[in-house]
Specification:
The chain is of the alpha+beta class. The protein has three domains: about 110 residues, Acyl-CoA dehydrogenase/oxidase, N-terminal domain (Butyryl-Coa Dehydrogenase, subunit A, domain 1); about 110 residues, Butyryl-CoA Dehydrogenase, subunit A, domain 2 (Beta Barrel); about 140 residues, Butyryl-CoA Dehydrogenase, subunit A, domain 3 (Up-down Bundle), CATH 1.20.140.10. Helix content is about 50%, strand content about 15%. The protein contains twelve helices and nine strands. The strands form three sheets. It has a four-stranded antiparallel β-sheet, covered by helices on one side. A three-stranded mixed β-sheet has the order 1-4-5. A two-stranded antiparallel sheet has the order 8-9. A hairpin with a 2-residue loop joins strand 2 and strand 3. The longest helix has 29 residues. It is globular, with a radius of gyration of 21 Å. The structure holds flavin-adenine dinucleotide (FAD). Flavin-adenine dinucleotide binds next to strand 1, strand 3 and helix 12. The site of flavin-adenine dinucleotide (FAD) has 21 residues, from strand 1, strand 3 and helix 12. GO terms for molecular function: acyl-CoA dehydrogenase activity; flavin adenine dinucleotide binding.
């Protein structure tokens, strides 16, 4: 494995971090809140929001300053993602999937690859995502069928990917392929490539989804699509499975942070509504049934936040954090589902109205249990890591 870059990140000055989060909150209040329902209900790509996120530097949030990024530690990044997700989770997917692609290049790429691609990723000039899943292979990534066959100084790629976030609006993807379809074990034949759109690379239609609207999810098709061998991340074949899964804990921290945001957003909406809505002559927050719900929701949201920052701190120290990131992703995503469901009950019949935001959080939250490794797999990973660290 080529883990060329030192990814240790110092915590930033607390005042600087607070000022950054304050600027994000002001942007949410002014630009995001007024448009979220329209974009979400109409399922339309939010071009001006993406432009504003580009101007704020979010497409380079975790990319090193030497490449033009903000170089933020994972802890600050998680706070930003949680804050935005507490109002509109889907827009964080537009820069998060992109940053996971960038992370693969920064962490595992050659020096030439880092200097060529990262400045363009950081500025948002090139935006994209991560292309792993195929119609027959989601959890079982080793079953992918997309192949890359070397032909001189190029790879010829054939196959297809599905469910790829930013697939239509993005222009470049970290693409998982088989460079040796006969390898045993299978993961040794897998490689990760930097795949910009070009001849032979086409996309399907935007999928219609339960939630996570506005951002596009689609199929990517490759038919004799050629890229230079220089686009093989790290320059050595057979490293892709590790680079795409075990190496990218940042992806799990990012999904955990989205779960934190959804949990806290649902709590905020329920807390406000429970004080304004009256029944039997008093605000519903004074009924014990609602107090029990809010008490559980506060606790879950807080626990999700602490687990997520714990994982982010380990990541920032440059240490492997499979166990911590898995626990954070698992717990925070389940907290998002539980809190949004409980908030629906607090809102009673009005939860079912499209005029209230809570229905969006309810629809969006379930995705957190699926993306970046399903929660079934997370618990298996947590258990394996735990037993490994605690030999009898
Ligand atoms: C909105 C959305 C956006 C997405 N964006 C992206 C993206 O940008 N890039 C990308 O590459 N993919 C993306 N995905 C795909 C996502 O990562 C996969 O859906 C996910 O990995 C699960 O794979 P699957 O859907 O094939 O489910 P399956 O793998 O078929 O799993 C079905 C069920 O079986 C369980 N299961 C499967 N195998 C095991 C096992 N060995 N042990 C225990 N349980 C198991 C799973 O936990 C799950 O409950 C996205 C998906 C969605 C819905």
């Amino acid at each position: 494995m080529t883990d060329a870059n030192n990814m240790i990140r110092e915590a930033i000055d607390p005042e600087e971090e607070a000022a950054f989060l304050d600027a994000i909150q002001k942007w949410i209040d002014k630009e995001v809140k007024p448009v979220v329902q329209k974009y979400d209900h109409d399922d339309v790509w939010p071009a001006e929001i993406v432009q504003q996120m580009t101007e704020m530097g979010l497409f380079g949030a975790t990319i090193g300053t030497q490449y033009g990024g903000l170089g933020l530690p994972a802890v600050t990044y998680a706070k930003i993602v949680a804050l935005i997700s507490s109002y509109w989770m889907a827009i964080t997917g537009i820069f998060n999937s992109h940053l996971i692609m960038a992370c693969a290049v920064e962490r595992f790429g050659t020096e030439a690859q880092r200097h060529l691609w990262l400045p363009k990723f950081a500025s948002g000039e090139i935006r994209g995502g991560l292309a792993l899943t195929e119609p027959n292979a989601g959890t079982d990534l080793q079953s992918i069928r997309t192949t890359a066959v070397r032909d001189g100084n190029e790879y010829v790629i054939n196959g297809s990917k599905t469910w790829i976030s930013n697939g239509i609006n993005g222009s470049c993807f970290a693409l998982l392929v088989k460079t040796d379809a006969k390898a045993d074990p299978r993961y040794k034949g897998m490689s990760l490539m930097i795949a910009p759109k070009g001849d032979g690379f086409t996309t399907g239609k935007k999928f219609k989804k339960l939630g996570y609207n506005a951002i596009d999810s689609t199929e990517l098709m490759f038919e004799n699509y050629r890229i230079p061998v220089d686009n093989l991340i790290g320059g050595i074949e057979g490293q892709g499975f590790f680079q795409a899964t075990g190496g990218l804990e940042l992806g799990r921290i990012n999904v955990a942070a989205r779960g934190v945001g959804l949990s806290e957003g649902a709590l905020r909406l329920a807390t406000e509504y429970a004080q304004l809505r009256e029944s039997m002559g008093k605000p519903i927050c004074e009924h014990q049934a609602i107090q029990l719900k809010i008490g559980e929701m506060v606790t879950r949201a807080r626990a999700a936040r602490l687990l997520t920052f714990d994982a982010a701190e380990v990541y920032d120290r440059g240490e492997r954090c499979d166990l911590q990131a898995g626990m954070a992703k698992y717990f925070a995503s389940e907290a998002a589902v539980a809190n949004s469901q409980e908030a629906m009950r607090v809102f009673g019949g009005y939860s079912y109205s499209k005029e209230y935001d809570i229905e969006r959080l309810y629809r969006d939250s379930m995705l957190m249990c699926i993306g970046e490794g399903t929660n079934e797999m997370q618990r298996i990973i947590i258990s394996k890591q735990w037993v490994k660290q605690n030999p009898a």
